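Re: the multi-chain job from yesterday

Posting the exact lines I submitted so nobody has to dig through the queue logs.
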Amino acid sequence: MPATDRKWWKEAIVYQIYPRSFQDSDGDGVGDLKGILSRLDYIKSLGITAVWLNPIYSSPNDDNGYDISDYRGIMREFGTMEDFDALLKGMHDRGIKLIMDLVVNHSSDEHEWFQQSRSSRTNPYRNYYHWWPAEKGTPPYRYSLFDVNHDAWAYDSLTNAYYLHYFSRKQPDLNWENPKVRQEVYDIMKFWADKGVDGFRLDAFQFAAKDTTFPEFPKGYEKNFTLYYAMQGNLHEYLKEMNREVFSKYDVMSVAEGAGNTFEDAHNLVDADRQELNMAYAFEGVDIAKPEGYSLLTFKEVFSRWDSSFAEKGWLSIFLANHDQARMVSRFGNDSPEFRAPSSKMLSTFIMTMRGTPYYYYGDELGMTNGDFQRIEEFRDVQTLNEYQYQKNQGADMARFLERKKFESRDNGRTPFQWDDSRHAGFTTGTPWIKVAPNYKTINAAAQEKDPNSCLNYFRELVKLRKNNLALVYGDYTLLDEANPNTYSYTRELDGKKFLILLNFTSTPASTNTGLDVSKARVVLGNYPQPSRDGKLQPYESVIYELP
Ligand code: GLC
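And the result, structure tokens for all chains:
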């Protein structure tokens, strides 16, 4: 199937909602399903066509729902199954599809399977997880992303054995070699697909298959752990089986989290003839921004390279933020009062005019910024908190660590949605589970509704434009003025329709030389009242032309 074959999930515009932080309906300080339900008209007004919800299943919340204790239940704080059914119906009534997060590399240690599994070595659930009997000695080192000691093996005295957890100790990895585990997962997926959900995002799934002989890995491998963790063993067999058992029977879309280490890995996940997943979600682009900054030349090179590798076959996601990243405008743009709005609009323009399915993170349509986390006690994220402990045990410079986390902690992207300038930004009447960003008094949806030039209204225009122009979805992408370190210029073209997009990524005026005459081109959308006519761009200017 060539990349230009039309599919609803290629034309979708996905809006990602972190349910914990979107809208609280009952005053407990935690966002919930009824809260989202009450905001469906707002969501619809954005024009987006699909919502990806972070996990809403029963969970003790060690990792905010990424540790699931019942895959068919709803997290108590989020509501009930009736609320879920109402939400799904409310979305479908409005023409919005729902994509669920599927977290099956691991479960919660409080899941019944794990409770059974750890209870004895002969329990029928023992093989649902990875156990290493202690009489074999200490298991070969495995790096854990979230563990306080970076150790992915946790010792459990009950059966004198270690269990494997690539993430936190409360997230034991499921054993995908066990056909019973796989069948359980397919049954869970069918349960939700039968309810009518429209897709699945496969959390951390590239790590699901392991070499269960657990060989020693070279010293220091953790610096590049995906080389050893991603795309191992029978992963592709499992995905083909999942496709046969589930995807082929429903009109659901599937997106992988992570895309391995090479283009070949990514294509092996999503090329249609392989009958595995629909689209890749690769991190190379979003990983570019560091606290020290980033180079636009690298940014252009990375996005162009990925685009060209997927021009004929396969399909990509386009995004600059999600719940595992700090805010887009703080990382890739400029969150100072002067440039926040233009740079945020410019970045949104980028996302909405690239080839691939855009995944747009809640709050970015307002230009929401990083939070204001000063002390370690203000952070909530298990990764940040456990890493703090780890660094402290290593005798690290903790002031420096905090400085870094203030910029890059995942909590920055998880602060409550800023609805209005009332207390707690209209998110809750109680005490929010995480600090609201103090700039909610000026940056909020209510204020932006009234302002025709707001980030919010600009985003709505972008969505409309993409929905009305297949050239922006499927059209060829051509990078122009490649060596320009300040501007990003490209065309998108399909069946004689040609758009030119100019983006200034800097806080000073910058020129781009595309070799194209825009004096007669139609300006379709721009983030300044007087858009550039001669390639001279104002700070963070973005402009989209239709070429004659
Ligand atoms: C994925 C999720 C992240 C979570 C981790 C463990 O990377 O996006 O939020 O912490 O998996 O489930």
